[in-house]
Amino acid sequence: MMELGRDHLPIHLTNLAQRYGSIYRLICGNTTIVVLSSSEVIREALVKKWSDFAGRPDSFTGSIVSAGCSISLGDYTEVWRAHRRMVHSALQRCCQKSLHEVIERHALRMRRVLMDYKGTAVDLSEDFTVAASNVITTLAFGKEYDKSSLELQQLHSCLNEIVALWGSSWISALDSFPLLRKLPNPVFARLLKEVVRRDDIIQKHLSDYKVGMKTMILKVVMSMLTHTHVHMATVDLLIGGTETTAAWLNWTIAFLLHRPEVQSRVYEELCTVLDGQYPKYSDRHRLPVLNALIHEVLRLRPVAPLAVPHRAIRDSSIAGYFIPKNTVIIPNLFGAHHDPAVWPDPYSFRPERFLEGGGSTRALFPFGGGARLCLGESVAKMELFLFTAYLLRDFEFVLPDKVPAPDLKGVASVVLKVKPFKVIALPRLGHCS
Ligand code: HEM
């Protein structure tokens, strides 16, 4: 297992599915893991039998990282359900009231940053992280930051470090092989240090918030749950909502550099349908080419490619196979999105498949499903749509001279990211003329 993880775990698990089928079992130390790699088996487990598979594995390192109170790593209990419901309804309220305006503001801010590059070749990943993270920090603390802000840099370096360490085999080995916990482990020591740092930073933000007491997402949550629940909900939203959206934007630009004609088609559609205006989220049904692009990038690079592991909370079955209680389930979303039985030519970037009837969004699971469906799905969908529309309306993305198009294999950890690349954002002056 550790050997497989060294390179690109989603690809390895998908290759194994070609040999052993869309459902197979791995034994890892004292843990039995069942990997699901087609949309049918994923739907059966996550949606149809959601109440059987809504648990999270009990993990030694997970309980340390989550203080026993996080939504993403917490097991399916009454308190967990109340916690999730509360944060979900607060997010829904934001979506209805202010999210659109918040995303528009940060899209325009990103536009100004890109304009300031004046056509030089740059790596945009940090700008995408700042935009995605500003949406969450605006909702959570009513605060937004510049790329140069020390506070933002501290927050991100800490959260990124936790996610990176968490995805490392040095850490996952501690969950599977308890004896290893007795040995010195410098990676684990670093993780513990970063968790303390994270808690100090979030604590400071929340105290500032309490002083300001503005109208924000946590006001509702604060009145109903313990301080630790509020704290961990903030961490969940920041971790879940920053690197995912930013990685997706980066993938979109990387794929478009391989097929510039797709970029032109989206631009023409934006110009024709909206007459040069920026779109509203309610315009999405009028922009099929843009939607096809979004779906195709979500299909090819689901940024959480293996979701988050689930646990069977009772004896059950998937595809007729008996699944005992406590089995760990890995929904291999990457595998399902590359299933040749569903997606002709599955490894090619062809947004047009969604326009020609060759791609059904029913077989897409980029946000998981059922009781553990991504909590930020509605936020993410609005962000992907508006950020992409604003970027492609205002800029043409081109490769620097003599530079090859980005490597599309990616680096897979908890989040699947594209390798760093530079791009030129050429302003489209005289919109849609
Ligand atoms: C969980 C995908 C953006 C917050 C997940 C899961 C996936 C996912 C696959 C795991 C589902 C499972 O366990 O079966 C994505 C993608 C995103 C995105 C593809 C953007 C492109 C966001 C955003 C937020 C967020 C913007 C916050 C505003 C969360 C949380 C969970 C989660 C809190 C844990 C849910 C739970 O365990 O019940 N996401 N996500 N995500 N996501 Fe997202």
How are the secondary structure elements laid out?
Elements: H1 2-5, H2 9-20, E1 23-28, E2 31-36, H3 39-48, H4 60-66, H5 78-116, E3 121-122, H6 125-141, H7 150-166, H8 169-176, H9 186-212, H10 217-224, H11 227-258, H12 260-274, H13 288-300, E4 310-311, E5 316-318, E6 321-323, E7 328-331, H14 333-337, H15 377-394, E8 395-398, E9 411-412, E10 416-417, E11 423-427
Parallel strand pairs: 2-7
Antiparallel strand pairs: 1-2, 3-11, 4-7, 5-6, 8-11, 9-10
GO cellular component, one term: endoplasmic reticulum membrane
Family: Belongs to the cytochrome P450 family.
Protein name: Steroid 21-hydroxylase
What features would you describe in this structure?
- This protein has helices at 2-5, 9-20, 39-48, 60-66, 78-116, 125-141, 150-166, 169-176, 186-212, 217-224, 227-258, 260-274, 288-300, 333-337, 377-394, and strands at residues 23-28, 31-36, 121-122, 310-311, 316-318, 321-323, 328-331, 395-398, 411-412, 416-417, 423-427.
- The chain is α+β, with helices and mostly antiparallel strands.
- The N and C termini lie far apart (55 Å).
- A hairpin with a 2-residue loop joins strand 5 (316-318) and strand 6.
- The chain has 15 helices and eleven strands.
- The site of protoporphyrin IX containing FE has 27 residues, from helix 11 and helix 15.
